[in-house]
Every structure is written in structure tokens, then in C-alpha cells.
Design brief:
- It comes from Clostridium thailandense.
- This protein has 234 residues and is an alpha/beta fold.
- The chain folds into 2 domains: 120 residues, Response regulator (Rossmann fold, 3-Layer(aba) Sandwich), CATH 3.40.50.2300; 105 residues, Homeodomain-like (Arc Repressor Mutant, subunit A, Orthogonal Bundle), CATH 1.10.10.
- It has 12 helices and 5 strands.
- The protein has a 5-stranded parallel β-sheet with strand order 2-1-3-4-5, sandwiched between helices.
- The longest helix has 19 residues.
- The protein is globular, with a radius of gyration of 20 Å.
Length: 234
């Protein structure tokens, strides 16, 4: 479960976001709401959320100032989602340079909201509650050994049912989905860190280095070494 704060000087915007979280059955717990920028900053300091919905135009401190001051606290693990009216869109784009994950335009459209949250959470939501829970589990535990049979037992369903859900919503097998997730995470680590490839393989759930190389090359088109070297050359 992710923990969120909503900072907006309009009650209607706050209520709408809470409604959409509930409507789409997202694994997000709203732990605080603020009407002013300084209140939002204080909540971030005290409540330590990992998602912050943040209006650009707020009293005392605007959204950009809140992000700047939060970064000075070294709170880099927060996913900021900036909310703004169209007239402030160019201004809001500055938030992306500060590390915000996305921008939501007012009035917030349900489909726009869902697409943003799928990007933030890392997986696409379905209208199937059990399948959503399985997706959440996999995306939070991909580093561990994850087996289809064990997933089925955990969620009191059958392996064939889960397999059908992956085919229906992703047109993929269970193991292909898990491998795709792990390899994407590995590619992110290769881009952003100097961690040795062997350690990255272990971090994303592979105990067999040869298998990791095989799956990585199948997904990305080159080996992890070539991928890493191409980043250095750039």
C-alpha cells in the first residue's frame, strides 16, 4: 500500500482525487491533505508519504517551492504528481525538471488520472479486484522467487485462472510478465547506478546469471554489458 498526501487549495480537487482512488480501487492510502504550501511541506516532513498530489498555485508556498524544499531534505523517494490549470501548464513543466513524475490538468479527467497512476504504480489496473491484488504483489516482490502456483494459493484461486487473466489483460504469460518487469528494473539500474551486473541480476530476482543474460538480451536486444557500455559512450 502506497501512502499519499493531497495538497490543493480547492476542496473539490482534494475530494475528486480521493474519489478516483476509491473508484479505481488503487492501493493508495491518503494520510493527509493540505490547503497551503507550507502545510504540505510540514506534512511531508512529518508523515513521510511516498506519493504527493501537489497543486502548483497554493498560498504561502507554491508547488515548485514545495518540491525544491523537499529535495533539500533528501526525500528523493517521493513521487510528486503536479496538478495545474491549463493556463499554468508551461509553468508546471518546470516541476518535471525538478523531478516530478507527471502533470495532471484541471479539471482532472478519470481516464487521465488512471493512466498517470498506472505510470506511477508501474502496472495497469483491471476491473478485476483479485487480479489487481496479484499485480500489486508481483510489482512489490519481483526481487523474490515468484511462482504461479504459489500466487494462486496465496490468493485462493487456480494457476489456470491467473494465467487466463494475464492473457486477457496483457496478452502475456505469467512468467513473461515477471521477466519483463525484472528486466525493465535491471535496465533502470544499469542506467542510473554503477552496481555490478551480477549484483543487479540478484537485486531484480535472478540467482542464475546466465539466465539473466539470456532474458535481458531477448528483451532489450543486447547483453547487459553492451547495454551498459552504450550508455557510457553517450
Amino acid at each position: 500500500m502506497r501512502h499519499a498526501i493531497i495538497a490543493d487549495d480547492e476542496y473539490l480537487s482534494i475530494d475528486l482525487i480521493k474519489y478516483l482512488i476509491k473508484r479505481f480501487d488503487l492501493p493508495i492510502n491518503v494520510i493527509g491533505q493540505a490547503l497551503k504550501g507550507d502545510e504540505a511541506l510540514e506534512m511531508i516532513r512529518n508523515l513521510k508519504p511516498d506519493i504527493v498530489f501537489l497543486d502548483i498555485e497554493m498560498p504561502i508556498l507554491n508547488g515548485l517551492k514545495v518540491i525544491e524544499k523537499t529535495k533539500s531534505l533528501q526525500s528523493n523517494s517521493i513521487d510528486f504528481i503536479v496538478i495545474t490549470a491549463y493556463s499554468y501548464f508551461e509553468y508546471a513543466q518546470s516541476s518535471l525538471r525538478l523531478g516530478a513524475k507527471d502533470i495532471l490538468l484541471k479539471p482532472i479527467e478519470p481516464e487521465q488520472f488512471l493512466k498517470t497512476m498506472e505510470r506511477i504504480l508501474g502496472y495497469r489496473y483491471s476491473n478485476n479486484k483479485i487480479f489487481n491484488e496479484i499485480l500489486e504483489y508481483i510489482n512489490h516482490n519481483y526481487q523474490e522467487a515468484i511462482e504461479l502456483k504459489e500466487c494462486a494459493e496465496m490468493y485462493h484461486t487456480s494457476p489456470s485462472y491467473i494465467a487466463r487473466m494475464f492473457k486477457k489483460y496483457y496478452d502475456l504469460s505469467f512468467i513473461t510478465y515477471v521477466n519483463n518487469l525484472r528486466i525493465n528494473k535491471a535496465a533502470e539500474l544499469l542506467k542510473s547506478t554503477d552496481i555490478p551486473i551480477k549484483e543487479i541480476a540478484y537485486k531484480v530476482g535472478y540467482n542464475n546469471l546466465n539466465y539473466f543474460y539470456k532474458v535481458f538480451k531477448k528483451n532489450i536486444g543486447v547483453t547487459p554489458n553492451i547495454f551498459k557500455n552504450s550508455l557510457i559512450e553517450k
